[in-house]
Each structure stands twice: as structure tokens, then as C-alpha cells.
Amino acid sequence: MSDDTFPTGTLMAGKRGLIMGVANKNSIAWAIAQQLAAQGAELAFTFQGEKLERRVKPLAASVGSEFLLDCDVTNDDQMDATFAALEAKWGKIDFLVHAIAFAGKDQLAGSFIEQTTREGFKSALDISAYSFVDAGRRAARIMNDDGAMVTLTYLGSERVIPNYNVMGVAKAALEASTRYMAADLGPRGIRVNAISAGPIKTLAAAGIGSGRHMFRFNKAASAMQDHTESKGVAGAALYLLSSLGASCTGETHHVDGGFHAIGMPQEAPLRASLEE
């Protein structure tokens, strides 16, 4: 298990970027923000509504940022205002972190085919996948030609995960969007990648039915036989957003302790997990 500190350095010195999707101190986006700040990045944050502002504001302050922007990704006027504010303050940006996803709780339990409604499907795809396309398009207009973008996905895009349901479809669309965006922006040297993180106890994960079973099974079945750590995801994001990630684009990078590589888990740890 790792501690709560992040490696310091100058990999992101002089770089500025936007973090979208911090909900609280347990958010993967917050771990990424801390790691980028520890490497010298200057950060802006979005939030949606007063409740999230109260959570995000002190976190942002702790990494030296007072640049907070109220932004509902389904509202074109707010998206316009967000990126106009970035351009007005900084002129150019160097990176974008997209960590936004949503599906109604009623869509994330039971049968996918029975539970998924038309409105639930449209909402999940809009907020979880299209928002990256929309943010990426706007960010690219003010991004330096050696910039980078990262979004967060999950293995439910590739395999059936109980109760993940429509979110798995949305994440599959997100990963496909990442590849198309990478192709469009590659000639400018802008790299676009996705990180497929293992289960982490975040606010988003709390909305998925049978979450406790998911965490136990992933720990038992992963190559490392341990939980995925936010710090590991943050390190991967640093690599992909910094000069270390040169020539890497259109990739879905797994940070899940090797869970994605296992065809059949070892019997002993699996049996032990079922007895917990």
C-alpha cells in the first residue's frame, strides 16, 4: 500500500490545464490534480452547482488554485463560458483531464435490457461520452500544439460487469471517441488517451449495485491481488499528460493491478474473497 504523498518534480512546470470532474477528496480526478500540481502544473477546476463548489474550492486552494468555473457539461452556454474564461485568463492551455460520468441509479442495477430506458441511455451517453468530445473540441481551440488530453474509463466497456449496465455502453463510446479524437488532433501533436482504472471507492462507484462484491472480486482476481490505488492512476495520467508520454495517443491504458489480463483467477484468493 502506498502513502498519501505524490512524487514531486518539474515535469509539468510552466504547463496549465483544466481538471473536470472533481467531486470530493476521494475522486480519481483529485488524485490526478494533486500529482500534476506536485510536478509544477497550474490548474483550473470545474464544478457544477453550489454544493460541489463547497467541496472543490478548498481542495483547489490546497494546490494553489483559485481558478474555479461553474460548468454543466450538458449546457452549451456554460461550456462556452468555461472555455472563454480559460482563454481570457491564460490564452493557451496545455492539457485537459476529463473525469465526468453519470447514469441514473435506476439504470445501474438488475437487467441491462430491462432497466435501460431511452432517456437513461441518452443521458448516460451525453454526459459520459459526448461531454469529452465537446470539451476536447473546445479545449483544442486554445491548446498548445504539444498538448494532451486524458479521460477515465473502466473495463465494463469491454466486458460485462454486473449492474454496470448502460455505463458500460457509454464507456465503450468514450473509448471509441478517444481514438477518433486522437486521429483528428494528432497532426497538431495533441495526444488523446483514456485510462481504464480498476474499481476505486469513489462517489461514482457508490452508485453501482453490488459494489462490495466488485471490489472483493477485483482484488482476488487481479494479477497483483490488491485494490487499485488512485495514486497509481494519477501516475499514469502524469505520464500521458507530460513529455514522458510522447508518441502515445489513441490508447486505453489499463491501471487495474493486471485484472484485465487475467482469464481465470487463482482459486485460493478467489475462495478467500467469497468468505470475507
TrEMBL record:
Pathway: Lipid metabolism; fatty acid biosynthesis. Keywords: Fatty acid biosynthesis, Fatty acid metabolism, Lipid biosynthesis, Lipid metabolism, NAD, Oxidoreductase. Its EC number is 1.3.1.9. It is an enzyme of class 1 (oxidoreductase). Signal peptide: none annotated. InterPro entries: Enoyl-ACP_Rdtase_NADH, NAD(P)-bd_dom_sf, SDR_fam. It catalyses: a 2,3-saturated acyl-[ACP] + NAD(+) = a (2E)-enoyl-[ACP] + NADH + H(+). It holds the Pfam family adh_short_C2. It comes from the Bacteria. Belongs to the short-chain dehydrogenases/reductases (SDR) family. FabI subfamily. This is Enoyl-[acyl-carrier-protein] reductase [NADH]. It comes from Algimonas ampicilliniresistens.
